[in-house]
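ok trying this again, last paste got cut off
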Amino acid sequence: MSYPTLAGRTAVVTGAASGMGEATARLLAANGARVALLARRAGRLDELAAKIGADGGQALAVAVDITDQASVDAAADRVRSAYGQVDLVVNNAGVMLPNPITAGRLDEWSRMIDTNLTGALRVIRAFTADLTGAAAAGRTADLVNVSSIASHVVFPDYAVYAATKAGLTQLSAALRSELGPRDVRVTNVEPGLTETELGGHIDNPELAEQLGGMFAAIPALTAEDVADLIGYTVSRRREVNLRQLLVLPTRQA
């Protein structure tokens, strides 16, 4: 779909090197937004920025580690130097590392918490002043957090991942009470089964096979489906906040 009201907006998309982040960045740029692409894999970002440019869009590749506040702050400074004040932030970066809690995988727990929850907070910290400033100037301002159906549906062996996403969902609700009165819209998106790279991070063969079985049984969402939902959401008139979006494949209960 086409979203002409996105033209002229300045967006930041984390986790832009692949999956939902890449698809969202491409959609925003195709509709006239300037898009800062944030992720760890610089090579992938450069390729995406080149593709967007070849298609007539504007994109800035910014390699960043969202588990490092100094890295996030440096990225924010670079974005503002290139594009000015940001009015749209899509917090999409995340990692999914399921294992039984009895496995005691502190390394995985720390990585998920630091990326999925604290990482999102670091990005919010870096760009909140931009969003409130844009809103005060009469422009549309959006913070979109990409959570998961796992935030409120129980999946055995995904406890810590689910806890980080539940935390992000609750954070979105709380931020809405703080930022909504300042005309900044906060949207929480909870996709169900979606084709992304997340499953490739799993190091438990049994759980990897289980997830593969789900994809075989259920026609999954595509990254573009989620990107289109985000595009629709942030293109509404500034007085309308689609606060909580739950999107599932038709066959996923």
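PB: full thing came through this time. The radius of gyration is 17 Å.
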